[in-house]
Specification:
The complex is a heterodimer of chains A (27) and B (98).
Chain A: E1 4-7, E2 13-17
Antiparallel strand pairs in A: 1-2
Chain B: E1 6-10, E2 20-27, E3 42-48, H1 54-63, H2 72-97
Antiparallel strand pairs in B: 1-2, 2-3
Helix pairs in contact in B: 1-2
Classes of the chains: A mainly beta (27), B alpha+beta (98).
Amino acid sequence: SATAQVVHSAGRRFIVSPVPEARLKEQ
Amino acid sequence: AEDTGVRVELAEEDDGKKASIALKLWVEDHKKLKGKYKESGAIEFTFDLEKEVPEVVAQEMVESGLFHESDGKTVGKSIRDRVALIKWRRERTVSAAA
């Protein structure tokens, strides 16, 4: 899966997933 | 809000009541970051509007390896700006209802 979970030692969960292309600013 | 290169948006609809809300953060312009940024995607997390401090969450992202230490402040500011907007919208909704 392209989704990953990063759990901080304090217990907070960060869920990392791909950014849809349309939402990226044009460089 | 200032363009920090880091975008923070709601990851769920704000019902105006919940203290804890899901936010999504991603880098729009990596050139604005000081540290080398590893393309990892959008980071979704929950934030308690009443109890939490944006800079602390940003520091947790740094400690988790999602951002370089030198970008903690930028990430914290981006979260703070979005949180301020959410709170402002909520206050405005309450005022309008009254």
